[in-house]
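Researcher: Re-running this chain for the archive, since the previous output was lost when a drive failed. Same request as before.
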Amino acid sequence: MQKNKIILKNILTKKQFIIIIAFFLIVFAVLAYTFFSPNYFEGKKSFRFEIKTGTTLNQVIDTLYNAGIIPGKRNMRIAAFLLGAEKSIKAGRYEIPNGINYVNLVEMFKEGLCEVPVYVHLYDGISLKVLARVLKEKVYVDSVLVIELSKDKKFIQTEEFNVSSLEGYLLPGDYYFYKETPVKEIIEKLKSNFDKFISTDSLQKQIKKLKYNLHQILTMASIIQGESKKVDEYITISGVYYNRLQKGMKLQADPTIQYSLNTGWRRLLKNDLKINNPYNTYVHFGLPPGPINNPGKAAILSALYPEKHSYLFFVADGKGGHKFTRNYTEHLKAVKEYRKWFGEQVIK
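Model: Regenerated structure tokens:
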């Protein structure tokens, strides 16, 4: 009798063991099917998806679900939890292959198997031509297309601007772009940053107060930007040019000559000052037709808030700055001093 009980107990134990094994096999099969089966989406071979810094896992899941890339949100969350990826997804631009399963998708985000944006510095006063070259070198875009689109009337009109070029309206600064980012997207980003900067109530009020339109102010800012590398001089230079405009004097700004020559920076000759070009402020009165570069915020603010003084002239002082004078006699004296200094440097 006792022997039979032992045999029966062993049989039950075996049955229980088999049931447990079967249960786990079923659970494993369900999990494998759920998390390792491919998730196909319609149309594209792959889906380009960007995760920006600060984006949460729930935001990522919502975007993928709404785009039809994953069939369910809950399974994606469970996969992220099991893989410990809830707070470790990496920012970047991903190419999600069609048919990827939940596990591989989560691992892709966790490991950061993506393209990261490239750092691009566009310095204050950068010309459209140089800007196009920098973008070509850093982001691998067509530099010719950058210039063409920046001067394309149809594209500019979509920006609600009555100008012939976006030169002056592309705000310099530090940017991050993915390689081969569409040129249109890059230009729109630069222009958008400019719009955000200039659209504040205080600046809009100041534009009206000066009684110059935005295009004229940006033109002035670009000249100021081209005249000096010392930011603390900007407002003084700005005051000089506004004083000259008010007195009906020619601006006689060297940077406008450099722009009209279109040969890159070089030391100007007397004959250069006589060229027949609308940007030659030694020949024509008033502001030139438009900006000669893309001025930075400091130069734009200086054009908006010029220093009030009686200076009408300035010349390099040989120390990286300028000497400002109120009349032509003082100016000639300052020029003589600079030439003397320059001659001594050549001899050395």
